[in-house]
């Protein structure tokens, strides 16, 4: 990455408060963060540590109570709903824990759903080949295994060639063998397309594949760990 | 808080109900419409029938009327001695032309005699205000309340009457109601016109003097003994009275006021039979869909409850309570609505039918029945879902259901797929995957449209009926009836009256028509050949010439006599020399009102063995000179009655707007509610089932509009598909209504104008759009964050 370029994300003093009065809960307490472009970032932490809230705010799904978020040179926290939708539509890919595929569309069509509205997408076929599903493109979600469904979800997320890929517990519902296949797909996208990837997990083993690991607890980033030699997903085990 | 006193499961019930309050209310309202409509129509039917019976009973409404030309009073004894006669009374009843200050057009009326002492025993009257005439004051009269009110006449006011050719100043002493004029309508008219038809009662002696009927009567009214044969009595009366110029005795079924009343009761019966089931059917469907899907979404909770040890029955009971609560709300809405509508209708009827009292009161069994129907509806609509709750194994229920399999899609759909975008594919596959659900939604919407057409079409049909009757068949502006049949020269006299452009004579002759066992008491109308005002039309509504020989029957009369063209019909003339002979039915013509028989005027007079005589003339009038004509007619002694086409039409339109307009308004409201109920429920349930899917799409960057399209596009498609189906259902409903409204008085043509279809479609589409907007607001507020974490 060249130095004069903006980082993928920059956050300043992010605070997120839920509820009010006695029942108020801090999900984030003044988080400062910089994510360089093209990195593979893993957010690690126990549940309730604020990692999902952070990801939702960076992904334009939620807004902080205080603080600012910049994506490239734009201030996301100043966007209205319409601009946030456009931001997600053009720059962001999402992978969910429970895949969230559309059951009435085939694998190819699930991907096409996104490529139809993107500006410079790859073909659905190419995206599915990238995740190793070139041969199951015309199957409906009900005909695919969990791992396959998650890889369709990754194909759907990367087909628009997003600048960032957000994965919330992508392996949470999968066994370790299938989980690794899914992580390989994410790593491949990160390496081959240069997509910045942020993966949430509570599985510490996954941290070994990241360039940067953010340890979260209590709504704060407790520790940032840089990994000069991230390993290949297939070397992981848990 | 009260809620804390409840068992946990009941608290869940209340909170669940609150959560689906919109949907629950939509269902309850549809049930309520059905219940309300039932209570209204059935209650009104019973109230009307009971009121009529009580009124007739208390004021001794006659069973038989036997008009004659002139018979000695002593004949009463012989009439009373006839078998089956319980009591008889004689009276004088005559046509009269009335002139009230401020009314330009002559008013047709009737005047009846009052016994010298006491009140009439048969057809007694109800004195609303004022007093009975004083026997020594000849000019004192009682007036029918509808007429008096229409002209603002009160006791003490005066009016003029032409009695047997002599104009007399009359003084009103009292305002009355009579069981004979519950529906006060002039003979030959289609709707009552309070202003244009008046009835007076006068001391017998004074009236006898005026009509040269001293010691005589011109009508006997009779109460029959229970279980007697009316037809036999009518025959005996005709035999006894034929020497006195009897025109034919008749029973209640041909008494015009009672005829209309019976007709109205029949219509109420039809409405009560047809419409509530439609609402209840829709409610059944809604309950089926909503409860079915609700239970699907609560699978895990059901499993959990069972895992905790709740018995199958207890869990099922929980859902039964929810269904029961919705139904109960529906019943309460229905009872309130029914009472409200019933009271409104009773008020409208009070204005229309003059009863001394008319209270809307539905007996307990009407309420019980409607409650019973609602419970059946609830049971039928939800039994399958409740059985499903009972059968659900806890272990199975706790595991989320597998994703729905869309792999078995239709080939035609897949061939279409390459040309349409992904969201549209989602819509089509979703519809194909749940065809029953789609069909039910579609049918539900179509039913609301059908209901609209079925109720609004009557306006089209009535307007059409009047247009044909007044502008194609009877085209005269004025009909003048003479006191006595007159020489044909009378036409010439009338032609000289101011403003008369053309005059066409007619003759009306009372007859009894017989074909085998079937008998009808009618009047044959003799028309001049080539008549241009009083015309005949065939079934295609094309004018047809009057055949030179033979008799022409209206289609309804031919149907009642079970006779076809070319067959002989026994005609017994009940006037003059009373000849009886067979006449060939020369043709059948179309009429929408009444049961008419026509003959060539010359043939008719030949039949009567008389010189050409006429009963009256049809006139075409210069509209600028009507006032002068009216003045002339009011002063013409030979004129017994005048009917004015334009005023009759106006009265008809007014009545139509008032009564049918109200009916159409409420049905529009109800049909709109059904449409909203169906569309809103379908949309809400789809949203709750597919909320996660739609929210995922929002996260993926689809805009609110794009996401709404997937859900609402499906409903739009179903609504569009429902439109032709709704048009068809509407036509069928109209057809059914036309069949059951086919009476001697009216035949409503099956005419549904394109504007009625358009109107119905518009209401349905607007209801759908309104429901869509309500749901759209919810789509806009979808929780995107929850989607990332939750599993279905």
UniProtKB/TrEMBL annotation, chain A:
Keywords: ATP-binding, Nucleotide-binding, Transport. InterPro entries: AAA+_ATPase, ABC_transporter-like_ATP-bd, ABC_transporter-like_CS, ABC_transpr_LolD-like, MacB-like_ATP-bd, P-loop_NTPase. Pfam families: ABC_tran. Residues 9-238 form the ABC transporter domain. SUPFAM superfamilies: P-loop containing nucleoside triphosphate hydrolases (SSF52540). CDD domains: ABC_MJ0796_LolCDE_FtsE. GO terms for cellular component: plasma membrane; transmembrane transporter complex. The keyword rRNA processing does not apply. One of its GO terms (molecular function) is ATP binding. Belongs to the ABC transporter superfamily. Macrolide exporter (TC 3.A.1.122) family. This is Putative ABC transport system ATP-binding protein.
Automatic annotation (TrEMBL), chain B:
Keywords: Cell membrane, Membrane, Transmembrane, Transmembrane helix. Residues 439-628 form the MacB-like periplasmic core domain. The keyword Kinase does not apply. The chain crosses the membrane at residues 20-40, 274-295, 316-342, 362-381, 438-466, 660-680, 715-737, 757-775. The lineage of its organism: Bacteria, Pseudomonadati, Pseudomonadota, Gammaproteobacteria, Cellvibrionales. This is Putative ABC transport system permease protein. One of its GO terms (cellular component) is plasma membrane protein complex. It is a multi-pass membrane protein. PROSITE patterns: PROKAR_LIPOPROTEIN. Residues 278-394, 669-779 form the ABC3 transporter permease C-terminal domain. One of its GO terms (biological process) is lipoprotein localization to outer membrane. It is found in: Cell membrane. InterPro entries: ABC3_permease_C (IPR003838), Lipoprotein-release_system (IPR051447), MacB_PCD (IPR025857). Belongs to the ABC-4 integral membrane protein family. LolC/E subfamily.
């Amino acid at each position: 990455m060249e130095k004069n370029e903006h980082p993928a994300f920059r956050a300043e003093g992010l605070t997120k408060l839920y509820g009010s009065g006695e029942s108020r809960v801090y999900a984030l307490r003044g988080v400062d963060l910089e994510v360089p472009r093209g990195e593979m970032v893993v957010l690690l932490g126990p549940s309730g540590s604020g990692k999902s809230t952070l990801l939702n705010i960076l992904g334009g799904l939620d807004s902080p109570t205080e603080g600012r978020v910049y994506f490239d040179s734009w201030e996301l926290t100043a966007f209205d709903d319409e601009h946030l939708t456009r931001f997600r539509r053009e720059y962001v890919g999402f992978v969910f824990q429970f895949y969230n595929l559309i059951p009435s569309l085939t694998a190819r069509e699930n991907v096409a759903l996104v490529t139809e509205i993107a500006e410079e997408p790859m073909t659905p076929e190419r995206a599915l080949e990238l995740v190793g599903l070139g041969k199951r493109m015309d199957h409906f979600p009900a005909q695919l295994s969990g791992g396959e469904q998650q890889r369709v979800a990754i194909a759907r997320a990367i087909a628009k060639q997003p600048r960032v890929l957000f994965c919330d517990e992508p392996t949470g519902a999968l066994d370790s063998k299938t989980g690794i296949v899914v992580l390989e797909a994410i790593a491949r996208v990160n390496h081959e397309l240069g997509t910045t990837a942020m993966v949430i997990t509570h599985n510490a083993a996954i941290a070994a594949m990241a360039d940067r690991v953010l340890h979260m607890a209590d709504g704060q980033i407790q520790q940032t760990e840089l990994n000069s030699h991230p390993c290949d997903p297939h070397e992981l085990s848990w | 808080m009260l809620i804390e006193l409840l068992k946990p499961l009941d608290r869940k019930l209340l909170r669940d109900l609150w959560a689906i309050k919109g949907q629950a209310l939509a269902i309850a309202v549809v049930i309520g419409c059905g219940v309300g409509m039932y209570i209204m129509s059935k209650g009104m039917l019973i109230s009307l029938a009971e009121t009529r019976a009580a009124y007739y009973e208390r004021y001794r409404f006659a069973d038989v009327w036997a008009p004659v030309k002139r018979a000695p009073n002593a004949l009463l004894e012989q009439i009373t001695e006839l078998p089956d006669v319980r009591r008889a009374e004689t009276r004088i009843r005559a046509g009269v032309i009335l002139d009230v200050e401020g009314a330009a057009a002559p008013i047709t009326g009737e005047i009846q005699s009052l016994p010298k002492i006491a009140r009439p025993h048969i057809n007694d009257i109800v004195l609303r205000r004022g007093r009975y005439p004083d026997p020594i004051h000849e000019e004192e009269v009682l007036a029918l309340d509808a007429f008096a009110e229409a002209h603002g006449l009160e006791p003490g006011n005066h009016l003029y009457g032409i009695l047997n050719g002599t104009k007399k100043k009359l003084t009103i002493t009292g305002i009355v109601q009579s069981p004979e004029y519950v529906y006060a309508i002039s003979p030959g008219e289609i709707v009552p016109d309070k202003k244009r038809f008046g009835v007076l009662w006068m001391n017998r002696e004074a009236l006898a003097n005026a009509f040269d009927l001293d010691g005589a009567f011109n009508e006997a009214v009779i109460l029959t003994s229970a279980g007697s044969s009316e037809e036999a009595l009518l025959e005996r009366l005709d035999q006894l009275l034929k020497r006195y110029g009897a025109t034919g005795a008749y029973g209640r079924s041909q008494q015009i006021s009672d005829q209309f009343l019976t007709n109205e009761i029949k219509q109420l019966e039809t409405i009560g039979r047809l419409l509530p089931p439609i609402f209840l059917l829709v409610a059944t469907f809604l309950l089926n869909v909503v409860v079915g899907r609700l239970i699907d979404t609560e699978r895990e909770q059901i499993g959990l409850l069972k895992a905790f040890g709740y018995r199958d029955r207890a869990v099922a009971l929980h859902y039964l309570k929810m269904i029961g609560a919705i139904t109960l709300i529906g019943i309460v809405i229905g009872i309130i609505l029914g009472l409200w509508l019933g009271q409104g209708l009773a008020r409208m009827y009070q204005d229309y039918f003059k009863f001394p009292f008319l209270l809307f009161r539905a007996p307990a069994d009407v309420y019980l029945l409607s409650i019973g129907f609602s419970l059946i509806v609830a049971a039928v609509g939800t039994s399958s879902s409740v059985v499903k709750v009972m059968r659900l194994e806890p272990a199975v229920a706790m595991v989320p259901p597998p994703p729905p399999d869309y792999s078995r899609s239709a080939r035609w759909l897949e061939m279409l797929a390459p040309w349409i975008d992904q969201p549209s594919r989602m819509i089509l596959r979703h519809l194909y995957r749940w065809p029953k659900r789609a069909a039910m939604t579609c049918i539900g919407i179509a039913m609301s449209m059908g209901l609209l057409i079925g109720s609004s079409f009557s306006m089209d049909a009535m307007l059409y009926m009047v247009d044909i009757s007044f502008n194609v068949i009877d085209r005269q502006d004025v009909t003048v009836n003479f006191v006595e049949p007159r020489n044909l020269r009378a036409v010439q006299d009338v032609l000289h009256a101011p403003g008369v452009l053309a005059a066409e004579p007619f003759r009306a002759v009372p007859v009894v028509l017989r074909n085998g066992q079937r008998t009808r008491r009618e009047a044959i109308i003799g028309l001049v050949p080539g008549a241009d005002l009083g015309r005949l039309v065939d079934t295609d509504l094309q004018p047809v010439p009057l055949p030179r020989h033979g008799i022409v029957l209206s289609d309804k009369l031919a149907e009642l006599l079970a006779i076809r063209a070319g067959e002989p019909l026994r005609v017994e003339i009940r006037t003059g020399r009373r000849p009886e002979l067979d006449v060939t039915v020369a043709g059948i013509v179309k009429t929408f009102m009444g049961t008419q028989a026509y003959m060539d005027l010359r043939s008719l007079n030949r039949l009567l063995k008389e010189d050409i005589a006429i009963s009256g003339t049809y006139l075409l009038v210069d509209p600028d000179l009507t006032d002068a004509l009216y003045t002339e007619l009011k002063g013409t002694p030979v004129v017994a009655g005048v009917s004015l086409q334009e005023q009759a039409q106006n009265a008809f339109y007014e009545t139509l707007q008032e009564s049918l307009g109200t009916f159409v308004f409420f049905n529009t409201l109800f049909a709109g509610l059904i449409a909203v109920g169906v569309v809103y429920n379908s949309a809400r349930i789809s949203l709750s089932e597919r909320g996660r899917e739609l929210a995922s799409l929002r996260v993926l960057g689809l805009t609110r509009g794009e996401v709404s399209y997937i859900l609402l596009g499906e409903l739009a498609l179903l609504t569009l598909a429902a439109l032709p189906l709704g048009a068809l259902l509407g036509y069928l409903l109209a057809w059914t209504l036309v069949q059951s409204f086919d009476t001697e008085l009216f035949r409503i043509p099956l005419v549904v104008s394109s504007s009625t279809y358009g109107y119905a479609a518009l209401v349905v589409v607007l209801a759908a759009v309104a429901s869509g907007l309500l749901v759209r607001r919810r789509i806009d507020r979808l929780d995107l964050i929850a989607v990332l974490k939750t599993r279905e």
